[in-house]
Amino acid sequence: MKNIGASIKDKLKQQARQQRVTMDFMMIRYANERLLGRLAASRWADDYCLKGGMLLPAWNDGDMFRPTADIDINGLNDGDLAGFKEMVLALSQMTPDDLGYDDGIDFLTETVADTYQREGGADGGKIEMKAKLHTSPIPVRIDVSFGNPVTPSVDHGDYPCLFRADKKTPLPMPKIHMYPPETAVSEKLHALASFGSFNTRIRDYYDLHILFEKFDFSDDMLAEAFQKTFAKQERDLPDDLPALSEEYAEENRGKWAKFNESTNLRDAVPDFHDVVTTIRDRLTTPLDLAREGSAGYSPA
User: Fold this and answer.
1) Among the listed residues 85, 95, 77, the one whose alpha carbon sits nearest the alpha carbon of residue 38
2) Other CB atoms within 10 Å distance of the CB of residue 42
3) I need a labelling partner for 81 at 20 to 30 A (CA). Which of 87, 115, 126, 172 fits?
4) What would you report as the CA-atom Rg of the chain, rounded to the nearest whole angstrom?
5) Is residue 298 in some structural domain?
6) Do 18 and 95 fall within a single domain?
7) pLDDT digits (tens, 9 = 90+) for 10-61
8) Which residues contact 264 (CB under 8 A, 6 or more apart)?
9) InterPro entries, alphabetically (predicted)?
10) Which residues 6+ apart lie within 8 Å of 230 measured at CB?
């Protein structure tokens, strides 16, 4: 009998070589996608939406573009970490018969653990577990929050997973709910405002760079998203953004270059000063509108 896990692992090695990324990156991406496949096939499919770095393939024709370790999930209804953990336990026990296909990966139920609980703003926390592909262990980390506002509305569609077009054993694309780009930008802005000049999340600058290249945003819609995100987090909209200052850009050029050694930009890394300037320029008008309350939304 053919060992599906071994076959998938060999294919991941080939893709890692072609994409010039590590095997660990490919295996983590694969495990994360297959957990999304289980969520899509479960009774909880309409209760959660994907956010964070795992959204990049949905915006880039299946290309991940940068490494990401976590699955970031937003609960669309009220919930808590204990209930989310119970769902993850159930997903880990799903079999090929439940799914209608065999993806060769096992999620080890006995390893499921909640490792961090977050309270205030959007409650939630982190679940960690181990998966196994053939003989290789893979760490899986899921960060969940509940009740983050989504503007203009939740997207729903096929997630462009690995091996979706494989000639021999194509894997079905999970049909899932996802953050729209406007909410992704809004939460990145919130992170920039929160961490200020001490921000170490270089990936956020990368993601904003990609988002502003890919999408033609409405300033009014972004302003509405900003208002809702900051109201949920009980924070005032910022008057200035040290994380987008000239000084920050100059001080973090080296970190930007290092980060992009493992992204699609590695062969022609844009100057960090130019990236920061573009992000600042693109955020200025919608942020002004949001502060003025002229985006058609006023938080209670």
Assistant:
1) 95
2) 17
3) 172
4) 20
5) no
6) yes
7) 999 999 999 889 999 999 999 999 999 999 999 999 999 999 999 999 998 8
8) 63, 65, 66
9) AbiEii
10) 190, 193, 236, 237, 290, 299
